[in-house]
Amino acid sequence: MANLIDTEKTRKHLALALEVVHHDRWIFGGLRDGRLRVMGDSETEREAPVQPIFMELSHLSRRCLFERHPIAVSSVVDPIGYDDWERDWPALIYVPIGVPKTRPVGLLIVGCSKEHWYTQDEIDYVAAIGVTLTAPVSSVTGPLGRLSVEERHVAQLLAEGLSDVEVAKALAVQAEAAGALADSVLRKLSLHSRFDLRDLFPYHSRIRPHLL
Question: Per residue in 114-129, is it b (16+ CB within 10 Å) or e — as a string?
Fold first, then answer.
């Protein structure tokens, strides 16, 4: 249930953030088995799917993820139809979701159904939004998706640099229980150090040396 609430909040924040960028549709999601697990689509926001929706990655999507940087496409050709918006629409921005210079965890696509030339400022702005989506996308389709709600909370606290005693106070549990949860988090994520958790939480990377 926590994933659904977090995803809904993320979709609302994304819609607000993209209001300043010219577009007719956006879609974002996490990578799973070489496909995109859709977490938000502005065309179907009123119809929350019961089952996860998976989308095949287009050539430009794969190129964006492989090169790990945004790709903007603009064309003066009028749209032929709307069966395939990525192929037909004249203006699209593909942005990898993830921490810069690391392997992307997802993809954000923004497009216009009519001719538009995206400026570098717009591209940079959408790219910055892609970075902010790292944690919520990872919590659903990335490594964090392997954790329980309680374990994800512990992972975030550890990424912020809290000790077992501090985590115990935050969760109102015994220090031994907090330590066991911390060990469980590292084991499920196949990590050797708490320092490695900062890559999963790009805005919580203040790991203190004595915790390593």
Answer: eebebeeebbebbbeb
Helix (H, G, I), strand (E, B) or coil at 1: coil
CA distance to 16, 46, 47, 211, per residue, from 96 (Å): 19, 25, 25, 31
Q: pLDDT per residue over 123-154, tens digit each?
A: 999 999 999 998 888 878 777 777 887 888 89
Domain ranges of the chain: 2-137, 144-211
Q: How many beta carbons lie within 10 A of that of residue 4, not counting itself? A: 10
Phi, psi of 9 (to 5 degrees): -65, -40
Q: Under CATH, which number does the domain 144-211 receive?
A: 1.10.10.10
Q: CATH: 3.30.450.40, 1.20.1250.20, 1.10.10.10, 3.40.50.10800. Which one for 2-137?
A: 3.30.450.40
| Among 21, 38, 20, 19, residue whose Cα is nearest residue 29 | 38
Give the predicted TM-score (pTM) of the model.
0.71
The tokens describing 185, both together, are: 């988090």
Decide: 69 and 54 in contact? Cβ < 8 Å.
no
Q: How far apart are CA 138 and CA 201, in angstroms?
A: 9
Output 180-187 pairs: Cβ under 8 A, ≥24 positions apart. Answer: 181/150, 181/151, 181/154, 182/154, 182/158, 184/151, 185/147, 185/151, 185/154, 185/155, 185/158
Beta-sheet strand order (sheet of 25-32): 53-56, 35-41, 25-32, 106-112, 91-97, 71-74
